[in-house]
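Researcher: Let's do a round of design. I'm pasting the structure tokens now; please hold your answer until I've finished.
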């Protein structure tokens, strides 16, 4: 007895990736799943991992043989990566089919799982026979567009696909967020008719603090219009523990965004352990929790407390320049302008700049699934950039007292896959 006679028609094949399907893994999902298996060398008749992934294409990696365990039986078979990817898609479709059937039974007042005596739930036999062949077709269709790409490139996001995240709501920033009183003063013969001091807290000429409108101003710097907004995240209670600053360079002629930087100003009560930092920043936001976990990983507990107790940490949340200006130092110039104009800390704490050197961010949701040699090769660009930034920060004249680096990409997305939750548990247990 098929499920169609008990719960209505529910096609298994339509749950595969394709038209009308809600299930669609990315190529990186499939490749990461395959690479989580042991690679098998048929000539040597032994499991042998690759020595390097430099120059290895997705098609080469997926054409390799891998050891596929047969459940909990202790036995295994050898399959190509493409076959394992197809099995992954087929298994997801079958799980989705069963989940929908269970929900439909519950909606009809029946138990999710058939009682003894009821027929076993099963899809249409003809569709079940086609499942693996159709899943192989789906896997091929997902992987073909990236088959010639390097495996390493598949797990890096360094502007891949011409990504420009400046194309957000930032385009309309000056007109939308900067009050007319903060715009550059009219110039005559290249000179301002009067001077006006920058009022970082917006106290002059305002009677009420508008929590929905960031404090902002705009001025011309060289060929660019420099726009900056700043606000406390908790102004209602006069709490200066967390602030956000956002600075942008626009082309003066076209008002096109050239570069942007977003800073998070973090100040915490006195710490005695990394657990204190996790507890505190978790109440701020998910991004700040990620910062706490990344800082805990990057700094020894004693150093962590020293840095956050003595400084106001300034985390570079976003730092980007459009492609035509990359490599011209525009991003550095913008960061310098933004840091120089930040309101001074009311308690006199100096600034500590916190940098995540990850424009080549690894897709961290897959990172632990990948072979060890590939994980090391994916870390190389970030290490190279960290060395470059270390050299640059050592000779720059930024208004900061110190700086430190954090592996932010590893912790972004609070609680994703339970990794952050497990790390928090370890921190709390070790410092209980």
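Researcher: That's everything. Go ahead.
Model: Designed sequence:
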């Amino acid at each position: 007895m098929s499920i169609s006679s008990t719960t209505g028609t529910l096609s298994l094949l339509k749950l595969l990736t394709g038209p009308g399907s809600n299930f669609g893994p990315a190529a990186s999902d499939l490749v990461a799943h395959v690479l989580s298996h042991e690679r098998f060398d048929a000539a040597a008749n032994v499991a042998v991992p690759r020595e390097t992934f430099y120059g290895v294409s997705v098609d080469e990696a997926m054409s390799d043989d891998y050891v596929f365990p047969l459940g909990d039986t202790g036995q295994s078979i050898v399959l190509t990566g493409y076959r394992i990817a197809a099995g992954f898609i087929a298994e997801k479709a079958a799980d989705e089919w069963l989940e929908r059937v269970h929900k439909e039974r519950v909606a009809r007042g029946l138990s999710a799982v058939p009682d003894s005596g009821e027929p076993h739930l099963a899809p249409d036999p003809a569709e079940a026979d086609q499942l693996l062949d159709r899943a192989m077709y789906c896997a091929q269709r997902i992987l073909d567009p990236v088959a010639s790409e390097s495996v390493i490139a598949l797990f890096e996001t360094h502007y891949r696909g011409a990504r420009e995240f400046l194309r957000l709501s930032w385009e309309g920033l000056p007109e939308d967020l900067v009050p007319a009183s903060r715009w550059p003063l009219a110039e005559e013969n290249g000179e301002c008719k009067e001077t006006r001091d920058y009022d970082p807290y917006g106290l002059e000429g305002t009677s009420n603090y508008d929590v929905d409108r960031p404090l902002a101003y705009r001025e011309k710097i060289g060929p660019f219009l420099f726009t900056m907004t700043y606000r406390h995240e908790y102004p209602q209670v006069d709490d200066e523990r967390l602030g956000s600053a956002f600075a942008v360079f626009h082309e003066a002629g076209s008002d096109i965004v050239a570069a942007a930087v977003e800073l998070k100003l973090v100040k915490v009560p006195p710490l005695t352990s990394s657990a204190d930092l996790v507890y505190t920043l978790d109440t701020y936001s998910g991004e700040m929790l990620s910062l706490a976990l990344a800082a805990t990983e990057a700094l020894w507990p004693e150093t962590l407390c020293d840095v956050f107790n003595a400084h106001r940490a300034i985390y570079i949340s976003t730092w980007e320049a459009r492609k035509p200006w990359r490599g011209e130092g525009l991003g550095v110039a913008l960061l310098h302008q933004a840091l120089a104009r930040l309101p001074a800390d009311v308690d006199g704490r100096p600034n500590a700049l916190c940098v995540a050197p990850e424009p080549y961010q690894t897709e961290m949701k897959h990172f632990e699934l990948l072979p060890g040699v590939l994980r090391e090769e994916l870390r190389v660009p970030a290490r190279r950039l960290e060395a470059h930034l270390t050299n640059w920060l050592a000779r720059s004249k930024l208004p900061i007292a110190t700086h430190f680096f954090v592996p932010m990409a590893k912790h972004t997305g609070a609680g994703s896959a339970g990794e952050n939750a497990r790390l928090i548990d370890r921190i709390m247990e070790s410092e209980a």
